[in-house]
Structures
1.
Amino acid sequence: MKSPQLLLLFATVAIFECTHAAVLPERLQLNICKKSEDDYQACLLQAFEKARPHFLNGVPELDFPGIDPLVINVTSVDRTLNELISIKAVLKNVRVTGLGGVVINDLKVDLKNMIGEIRLTVPHCEMSMEHDVSGQLLIVPLRNKGYFRGNFSNIQMYMRAQFKKYKQADVEYFTVDKFDTKFRVGDGVIKIIAKNPDLQFTADLITNFYNENPRLVMDSISPIYNEYSNQVIKQEINNYLARVPAAEFLPE
């Protein structure tokens, strides 16, 4: 896909888990926020800033990879909205830099109903990858294998999650019951190089169409990457929650 949203969602998962992680190595344990905090939201914000350097570089004890650069070996998407918007893509050797500059714009926590909301901004990021894409993007057919580079700015991210508890072997765990996430990229410029030089014309067609109409392109495919990100982020968060008892994630 020719935009950064599907990749930024992995970084969003990392940021979200940073502020809620409970089973931490000793150097990070002081960042745990207790349920009894006078201002739980303020504690989370402070915890994020203190833990930020560690999560940028990765935390091996938690099997947590660094997010700047963010490296993804392979990911894929296969979705059709209508006859004008359909994308089937395999992305390999993805590398994203700039996510370390993420800014938390707003954070809301409702402990009684177990609901959390967060709004983030990434001022700028750069991305490179190998891609194999097919489908249709408005008036442009997507048929290309090659290499992609992009510079993107003012990336806005929003997540809202509602959690619930369940028991397993008499131990309570959290799981995400309802989840919603949305991404919006302010602007971007891309370059595509075809593996087969004879097909560079197609690569240039896609490149020029995007660069001349970035807002149109990104708004057109937004239902795809928002739906995809909802599924992937929810699953990733639940994978982490299932490892640790609820009392560890939210101590009294």
2.
Amino acid sequence: MPKLWNETIDAHRAAVREAILEATVALVAEHGALSVTMSQVAQQAGIGRATLYKYFPDVESILIAWHDGQLAGHLEHLTRVTASGGDAGQQLEATLEVHAMMTHEHHGPPWAAIVHGGDARHRQDAFIQDALRSAASSGAIRNDMTPEELANYCLHALAAAANLPSKAAVRRLVQLTLDGLRPKP
């Protein structure tokens, strides 16, 4: 029987899962997403291939799980920021600024775009749409477009934060994005 890494089965499983995620991200960063095999992941994580397959069917699934974990952390941070108070317009501004700063600071490796779709993108869109819906209801932003359209605008505009040279430039980008959301005179 293999030695448990932790005192409880649940803690052991969580530690093995984390080791798999870390090993995969390191290998993909070094070799590229298309070059990594499950055998390499198992070896890097210090587990057998059979154990690895109990957790994930393929490298893509591991990367998706890693990305979902990253996004969950970002969404928790956004939730804390928006729950800190202020009116709907201030909460929207804080939400967009946090999102833009995260994009600027942690835009991730090039392969992250491969897994940034589906449920992860849907949760991000829903969060931004809720903030936009509240701001539109309060009159802080325009209401002649759907929250879905406005969220699409915001997320695409703020994606530019990944290439900006400073936090000051990111803040200016957020203000420019907010200017596009202002109600028509």
